[in-house]
Automatic annotation (TrEMBL):
It comes from Halomarina ordinaria. SUPFAM superfamilies: YojJ-like. This is Diadenylate cyclase. Residues 14-180 form the DAC domain.
């Protein structure tokens, strides 16, 4: 007999969403590898924060990041034109701050956001399973926290300090330092 849970869509294994995640990860990794000044003092590299969401709004748990906007005139749909999406991603990584919200169908929200702490949400269970590491700054901790939300499929970050690429799923993370990215791409 079917249960209500059998009606849920498993976005983690959905083919279109998996392709979306692969494209985002490719873009982030390539931007990290293309920047050649990670070891120079007083230099900040490109930084990114993507959140793939299944809900129709993030209004209740995010605030606009001022004038930080995704360049929708360059790319509105991740899956429509990967080259245009990469171009927009590279620009945002160098010149904008905040999380880029992407729906599971690949449409990018124009307004970049700051997510509220999920751990401060009174509707969240008190026992937290979110993993943090010593190297995480505010962008990464926010991405870890945000990834635990029920309507968030995954989050990804590119560290502006080290070029590290991290993927967050349900409060847990897998990370690849830039030097390991370089070795994997050779």
């Amino acid at each position: 007999m079917p249960t209500p849970a059998s009606l849920d869509i498993d976005y983690q294994s959905h083919e279109r969403v998996m392709k979306l995640i692969d494209i985002l990860k490719f873009c982030i990794e390539d931007i990290s590898l293309a920047f050649e000044s990670w070891d120079e003092p007083y230099v900040t590299g490109p930084g990114l924060y993507f959140a793939i969401v299944s809900g129709h709004t993030v209004r209740n748990h995010a605030d606009p990041m001022g004038a930080n906007r995704w360049p929708v005139s360059t790319s509105r749909d991740v899956l429509d034109d990967v080259d245009s999406f990469y171009e927009a991603t590279a620009e945002v990584a160098r010149n904008r701050d905040g999380a880029v919200v992407i729906s599971v169908d690949g449409i990018v929200q124009e307004q970049m956001v700051r997510f509220h702490d999920y751990s401060a949400d009174p509707n969240q269970p008190t026992e937290s399973h979110i993993q943090y590491a010593d190297w995480m700054g505010s962008r990464h901790m926010s991405a870890a926290d945000t990834s635990a939300r029920p309507d968030v499929v995954t989050t990804m970050t590119l560290s502006a300090e080290t070029g590290r690429v991290t993927v967050f799923d349900d409060g847990e993370y897998s990370t690849t330092p830039r030097d390991e990215l370089y070795q994997a791409w050779q």
